[in-house]
Write a structure and sequence with these properties.
Blueprint (H helix, E strand, L loop, with lengths): L8 H26 L9 E5 L2 H8 L4 E2 L11 H4 L7 H14 L1 E5 L5 H6 L10 E5 L2 H14 L4 E4 L10 E5 L9 H6 L7 E10 L4 E7 L2 E9 H10 L2 E8 L17 E9 L1
Parallel strand pairs: 2-9, 3-4, 3-6, 4-5, 6-7, 7-9
Antiparallel strand pairs: 1-8, 7-11, 8-9, 10-11
């Protein structure tokens, strides 16, 4: 057998690889920017310094914000299913619902978390699950709850009407909340002892508000600076008991890839 040696072959391949690697990072950045021009729907667009600025920009479209009857049923069935990121919330709720006897589900849509969680929690017959949300969502949720005879479930569009509830649940609330959490809690008859927040959109840099496409509507979506967010909640007199990351819900603003990926996380805070 005759062996043939290709002199210089290894070094040539190595040199070619090095030259190619010089283009990888610039091309990755360019690909993110080029997505802006692609003729496909984008979930997140724009980057604004405040909720009000984002809402004003959204009003250039067909619908602005979440408070519309036609938006209420969007993704309802999907939101009623248990997801992987719900399990940390369920872990804490199993003991808390026994202790508290009631909760306010802020931003609870049409009772989606009640529908997803009820068979996994020890809810007594007298347990009160009160959903606080926007008027259009509340109307649709109450109508459906009455139809399905869900007697534990009720709806309010004013936090003061929720009554005293020791447990505050906000799953997917913080992105869409147009006031500080402290202001919302301040509208309750008394501050809740326990706060569970899930799917909170965070970043290391300054807070940014983008617009999320939901059905025909564009809805302001707030991505908070994590340090400022934690300082705000602990400043209300709460201690952080637990935090969990939700990597699968990390995302980018399609029109502003230079802002980097958001982080999604959940928290349990307890009144000191």
């Amino acid at each position: 057998m005759t062996t043939v040696t290709l002199k210089g072959r290894t070094s040539t391949l190595r040199d070619a690889r090095r030259r190619a690697e010089k283009f990888v990072v610039p091309l990755q950045a360019l690909s993110g920017r080029l997505r802006y021009f692609l003729p496909i729907p984008r979930r997140f667009t724009g980057a604004y310094s405040s909720y009000q600025e984002a809402l004003a920009a959204a009003k250039n479209g067909a619908l602005a914000g979440y408070d519309h009857d036609e938006i209420a049923p969007v993704a309802f069935e999907q939101m009623c299913r248990l997801a992987a990121w719900d399990y940390p919330v369920l872990f804490w709720m199993r003991d808390l619902v026994r202790e508290t006897g009631s909760l306010v589900d802020a931003g609870g849509h049409m009772g989606t978390k009640y529908r997803a969680f009820r068979s996994h929690l020890p809810l007594g017959e007298d347990f009160r699950w009160v959903v606080y949300d926007l008027p259009a969502i509340v109307r649709a949720g109450q109508k459906l709850a009455d139809k399905d005879q869900l007697t534990r479930l009720s709806f309010v569009d004013r936090m003061a009407d929720a009554g005293p509830t020791p447990l505050f649940l906000g799953s997917g609330l913080m992105q869409y909340l147009d006031v500080p959490l402290g202001k919302l809690i301040g509208e309750m008859p008394e501050a809740p002892k326990h706060i569970l927040l899930n799917k909170v959109a965070l970043r290391k840099g300054p807070t940014v508000v983008t617009l999320e496409q939901i059905g025909r509507a564009r809805v302001p979506y707030q991505i908070r600076n994590e340090a400022e967010f934690l300082q705000h909640v602990t400043g209300l007199g709460y201690e952080l008991v637990d935090r969990w990351a939700i990597p699968s819900l990390s995302t980018r603003i399609d029109t502003h890839p230079e802002l980097g990926k958001t982080e999604s996380a959940g928290f349990y805070f307890r009144k000191i």
